[in-house]
Write a structure and sequence with these properties.
406 residues; Growth Hormone, Chain: A
Length: 406
Amino acid sequence: MTPTDASSRSSLHRSVWALGFVSLCMDTSSEMIHALLPVFLVGGLGVSAFVLGLIEGGAEATASLLKIVSGAWSDRWGKRKPLIVLGYGLAALTKPLFPLAQSAWAVLAARLLDRVGKGIRGAPRDALVADVTPAAHRGAAYGLRQSLDTVGAFLGPLIAIGLMLGLAFDVRAVFWAACVPALLAVVVLVVAVAEPANVPRAERGESWLRGLRRRDFPRAFWLLVALVGLFTLMRFSEAFLVLRASEAGLPTAWLPATLVVMSATYLLTAYPAGRLSDRVSRKRLLALGCIVMVAADVTLATADGLPAVFVGIALWGVHMGLTEGLVAALTADHAPADLRGTAFGMVNLARALMLLPASALAGALWTHSGAPATFTVGAGLAVLTAVAALLLPDRRQVAADANAAA
């Protein structure tokens, strides 16, 4: 380990590590369910790929829409932790609804409630990471949180596979087991995450519209918001990766392996990419991540067997590792200190506006033209997003805009 690496690790607040472990536990729970949910819906409850796209897109859009509300609330309140606890607590309480579901509509209700919890916690959690992390180490902090989160995404499907084999392929029993790590996540959050001292907040008497007006953020922030919208359109739900593997002949009990492979490459990429982004151009790394997505989509569109499908899934995970923490770091870079929660909410609003059409488009293409058409269109959109990423202002220009606004 170099002195720079050691400095980066030691500068990360204990709450960043604790939040990462909380994400690990909750993602383990969620992925135990999510890894089996597509086949449970399509094979067990008889819904179409199009309806699956609507359920996944609607659930994720709900979460993203709520993030702007909870983010803005945490800015005005000057507190992050209560909203984070509420969000994770609600997600834990909704987990038993999945094994109890008897119809697609019941699953949709469970997914929506689960995502409401995600929407409440997301922006305050990401803002808290920025509150307790020096600007020079934000890439590493978000990369670390994403890496620990992805450990859960890696473990969840593996545990699901083991339980499926040990419980005679009883999907509902696996869903019940997923309730345990969700409860552990809430316990760790309450005990180990500290409320940041002196969270920046708007001065009394300022307009309640602060944070919702164009002039409240620099131009570079709004360009980032537009880019995130395009970014979301190019990357539809990972549920279609599970369907692609199933179509290529992967047995039902082994379908969670698709998310294991994706999570493994995501896990191995996220923290190194975050640290690297503290030293080089973030926008170029973002463009590189989009090019990796082009490679993933092309591979998945043309794959003629399971080995090629898994190569595409692995590349998808590399893309996630290169981009997810990077978008969070860019958001923190471009946001005024007293509007961080609102800024993360705005970015997630852009995702919300595109999530449902993205998943619906993928489902419609799949239903009417097959998997190759779905992934080919995704590749084309990824090329456009890579070009758009390179047009973002660099850090010097962002700093100059901030100084001018001040």
